[in-house]
Design a protein that fits this description.
By secondary structure, this protein is mainly α. 74% of the residues lie in helices and 6% in strands. The protein has a two-stranded antiparallel sheet with strand order 1-2. β1 and β2 form a beta hairpin. The longest helix has 73 residues. The protein is elongated and about 95 Å long.
C-alpha cells in the first residue's frame, strides 16, 4: 500500500508526497515479534500459575499434617482418659462395697471358705481388670497410649498378679486373652514377688483402749 503523508512547506502551503511501504520482510519480522512477545507473556503467566499452584499444594499439605497431628493427640488423650476412668471405676467398686472388698481380699489370698458365687465374683473382678490391661497393651502397640500411663498401669498390675488367687484364675482363664498379652503376663508372673496384703493397726490406739 501507498501511504499519503501531509507536509507543510515553509510558505504554509499544504503539500503531499507518497511514502514507500515497509518492505514485506520487515513487516513479517514485526508481526513475528508481536507473536513471540504474546507467546512469551502467556508462558510467563503459565509459569507463575504453576508456582502459585505448587505453593498452595504445599500449604494444604502442611495444614493437613497439622490437623492430623492435633487429631492424633486428641485421640491419644481420650484413650488414656478412658483407661484411667476404667481403673478408677474398678477400684471404686471394690472400695465402696464391704462384700466386694472381703471377696477380693479372701480371693486374692486363695483362702478356703468362699462360696461358688463369691468365686464367680472374684473371677469377674480379675477378668475385668485384666481385659483393661490388655486393652492398654494393644493401644500401646499402636502408639495410642503414652509410655508414662503404661508404666503406671504396669506397676499396679504387678501388685495384683502375684497373688495366689490371681495366679489360680489366670491358669484357668488364660485362653481368653490374646497370645501376645498372655505371654507378657506369664513373664511378669514368673518375676512377680510373693503377694502380701498387710493392714497395719495403730498400736498406740490399741494401748489407749
Amino acid at each position: 500500500m501507498w501511504a499519503v503523508r501531509s507536509l507543510r512547506s515553509p510558505d504554509a502551503q499544504p503539500a503531499t508526497r507518497f511514502v514507500r511501504p515497509l518492505p514485506r520482510a520487515l513487516c513479517f519480522s514485526v508481526d513475528r515479534w508481536r507473536m513471540d512477545t504474546t507467546s512469551m507473556n502467556w508462558d510467563a503467566i503459565g509459569a507463575i500459575g504453576e508456582v502459585v499452584g505448587a505453593g498452595a499444594v504445599v500449604l494444604s499439605l502442611v495444614y493437613l499434617a497439622n490437623q492430623i497431628r492435633i487429631s492424633n493427640r486428641a485421640s491419644r488423650h481420650a484413650a488414656e482418659q478412658h483407661l484411667l476412668d476404667n481403673q478408677r471405676i474398678w477400684l471404686g467398686r471394690i472400695a465402696d462395697s464391704d462384700s466386694l472388698s472381703n471377696i477380693w481380699l479372701k480371693g486374692s489370698r486363695d483362702e478356703p471358705g468362699l462360696t461358688e458365687a463369691e468365686w464367680v465374683r472374684f473371677g469377674t473382678l480379675c477378668q475385668e481388670v485384666t481385659l483393661g490391661w490388655e486393652r492398654s497393651f494393644l493401644l500401646e502397640a499402636g502408639g495410642d497410649v503414652s509410655r508414662t500411663v503404661l508404666e503406671r498401669e504396669t506397676r499396679m498390675r504387678k501388685l495384683i498378679i502375684g497373688s495366689p488367687g490371681y495366679r489360680k484364675w489366670f491358669s484357668v482363664r488364660k485362653p481368653v486373652l490374646t497370645a501376645e498379652f498372655a505371654a507378657l503376663l506369664e513373664k511378669e508372673l514368673a518375676e512377680a514377688k510373693p503377694y502380701e496384703i498387710a493392714y497395719a493397726t495403730d498400736s498406740s490406739n490399741e494401748n489407749e483402749t
